[in-house]
Amino acid sequence: MTKKIKNILLFSLFFVSCNKATPILTKKEIYKKVDSIVNIRIKEIDKESERDLEHRIKIELKVKADSIINARINKTVKDPVPKNAQLFK
């Protein structure tokens, strides 16, 4: 019984809210709203990407530097192209 009443109330609220007249916007107003929303989101994405970049640099730079140092110490750097490789046929 209470579930039925809740459903009726929700439906009636939904129905009443849909009957409100929405203001008609011109193309210029729509573009203005869209641009403002997009600009805000672009700023948020830029800030987030900067934070991610700083975090990744801290992690990846240390690993790269360590591998370069270890390669120099152990002299395990191999020539990427073997001496007897044929470059052109």
Task: Please outline the helices and strands.
Elements: H1 2-18, H2 27-74
Quick synopsis:
Helix content is 73%, strand content 0%.
Q: What does the model show?
A:
The chain is mostly helical. The protein has a domain at 24-76. Helices cover 73% and strands 0% of the residues. It is built from 2 helices and no strands. It has helices at residues 2-18, 27-74. It is elongated and about 80 Å long. The termini are far apart. The model has no long low-confidence stretch (mean pLDDT 79).
Attribute tags:
89 residues; mainly alpha; 2 helices; elongated
Largest sheet: none
**Share in β-strands:** under 5%
Distance between the termini: 85 Å
Count of runs of 4 or more consecutive helical residues: 2
Unreliable stretches (pLDDT < 50, length at least 5) are none
Order of helices and strands: HH
Q: Mean pLDDT score, rounded?
A: 79
What is the general shape? elongated
What is the SS-derived class? mainly alpha
- Helix content bin: over 70%
Spatial extent as radius of gyration = 31 Å
Total strands: the figure is 0
